[in-house]
Amino acid sequence: MPLKSADQLAPERGSDWLPPVATLNSVKVARFVIRVINGIGLTLLVLIFALPFAWMISTSFKTLPETMVFPPKWLPENLVWENFVRAWNTGPFLHYFMNSVIVAVGILCLQMLTVIPAAYAFARYQFRGSGFLFGMTMITLMIPAQLIFLPVYLQMSAWKLLDTYFALILPFASSAFGIFLLRQSFKQVPEELIEAARLDNAKEWQIILKIMVPMAKPVLVTFAMFSFIAHWNDYFWPLVMTTNDTVRTLPLGIAQIRHVEGIVTWNVLMAGNMILVMPILIVFFLAQRQIIRAFVYNGVK
Amino acid sequence: MALWEKLRPYAMVAPAILVFSLFFIYPIFYMIYLSLFEWNFISPVKTFVGLQNFIDLFQDEEFLQVLKNSFIYTFLTVTLTIGISLFLALWLNRTGIIYGIVQGAIFSPHIISLVSISLLWSWLMDPEYGLLNWVIGLFGFGKLQWLSHPDTALISLVIVAVWKGVGFNTLVFIAGLQSIPKDIYEAAALDQSKPWTTFYKITLPMLSPTIFFLVIICMLNSFQVFETIYIMTQGGPVNSTNTLVYYIYQYGFQFFKIGYASAAGVILLIILAILTILYFRLLSRRVHYG
């Protein structure tokens, strides 16, 4: 059968019939344009978040005169690695680093010790006043450090505990957030498992360590990450509780670079900032999926 | 029940309760107590002045400015952060390597310390050589003073807060969007519902618990802002970025007016308490559950 042209087909199929090729083209073009706009949008979005970091890296390799140029140059003449050395030497950075480790790890250990038993008690025991005590725990979630720093500072000062690890660690020795998360987790452990263990004459602490904790491991790991990162990055509390270098932590050390050399030497400052930021960024890129999942899904609960 | 068995739960919660009582509950009462006195921290004498500190606060222009700054900062930060995050969540709610990269990129500020971000943005917003002025120059704008000018300083801080916060909120919204059952959307499609109607009548109500949760978290965080101000502007220029927590810090740690600072702290406590109560009230009323 001979092929008919579009004009010949139209009367047969109705006057508003268009050959398939024509309609497909306009839809295809529209879709393509949308995809291009989408692509541009996504690129801009990534740039908004990547450019600041790129700029930080670029600045950290420049000489001071190179930073005082406008419009700014992206590539320095030479890579001034010196900046990193100077940043590191503005203060006892190794000491700050050790302090940060001691504080963050200390807090985490104490939290594990106080949170696990408390969560277990709240989850699996009925006892008088448990509602009140749990309510009290939850209220502390609403009490931020920024509200109580002044009275706690006065307390610490009166007890001569300023500039000690106690002042940095003790206030965070427990965590209402941790108790909340873990209690949920413990509640979900099947009753039968515990009954079986009790029938085997297991002691309570064995039940906790050998059954509950392993079953709650994902939650514990998430919480540990939260806690470690939060206290590692904490600037405010160490700022308030320290007056000298004894127990000063890394974030304070980095911020201090600003005041060391009189005028602000942005290149050295950014080099110092790199030292603080790069380890976390690298870990983030490697473990992105897990980290996001941990932070976000616990936010959703 | 053996005595030990009866006492055991209390023993197990005791350490945690002790920490909370000592470092959270007691300080609140101590602060309320201190707000009724005048004390310069050094002398052993505290002078009782009753509510005079509060009266002074509300007659102090500086404090009223600080209150105003706090509310403006919070309002702008929350609306921009939540609004942009919602938009981004709807846009980026797709799987694939590219979207994974974009989601990672917007989330990255969340795990970087606030110190690092404050230092970085101080440099970005440098009026003479900062990158930000170069970027807006590309769009035809002239250089701005950002943190150095009273009119733009607060907004600059808002920009930093939004930049940091958008990633986390977007990803939480995406998780929320993905937990909406697909069949509801199929039913809407069968009814030939328009995209805007679907969004307004289905997506938004189902997302409302998440929205309220994030709004309250954002609000509480915004009222507590301190680090960015301390590092970037120290409350200036001309008190244009002085907010509640920084004000308390100034009067407690720099001017040694402990009673006065405590009174400001009590005001902050009241604001936070009201926000929390509002949240729980709204939660039970407007939230739509399945």
TrEMBL record, chain B:
This is ABC transporter permease. InterPro entries: ABC_transporter_permease, MetI-like, MetI-like_sf. It is found in: Cell membrane. It is a multi-pass membrane protein. The keyword Cell membrane applies. Keywords: Cell membrane, Membrane, Transmembrane, Transmembrane helix, Transport. It comes from the Bacteria. Belongs to the binding-protein-dependent transport system permease family. Pfam families: BPD_transp_1. The chain crosses the membrane at residues 12-33, 71-92, 104-124, 153-177, 198-223, 258-280. One of its GO terms (biological process) is transmembrane transport. GO terms for cellular component: plasma membrane. It comes from Bacillus thermozeamaize. Its main location: membrane. Residues 67-279 form the ABC transmembrane type-1 domain.
